[in-house]
Write a structure and sequence with these properties.
Layout lengths: L2 H19 L2 H7 L7 H7 L1 H7 L1
Helix pairs in contact: 3-4
């Protein structure tokens, strides 16, 4: 996603609410803790391992 996409999304939710915009599930998911820790993701991805090292 690009910055302008996020800004447009935030504006729609701000104006109409998550339920009216049909994105309640996405907002709820964003408000939860991650299911996989950042450290675990870094160790699962070869590109990420280069960044961690």
């Amino acid at each position: 996603m690009r910055a302008h996409d996020v800004e447009a999304f935030a504006g729609v939710v701000r104006r109409y609410g998550a339920d009216a915009a049909g994105v309640r599930a996405m907002v709820d998911a964003a408000n939860q803790k991650p299911e996989i820790a950042r450290v675990q993701i870094a160790h699962a991805c070869g590109t990420c391992q280069l960044l961690v090292a």
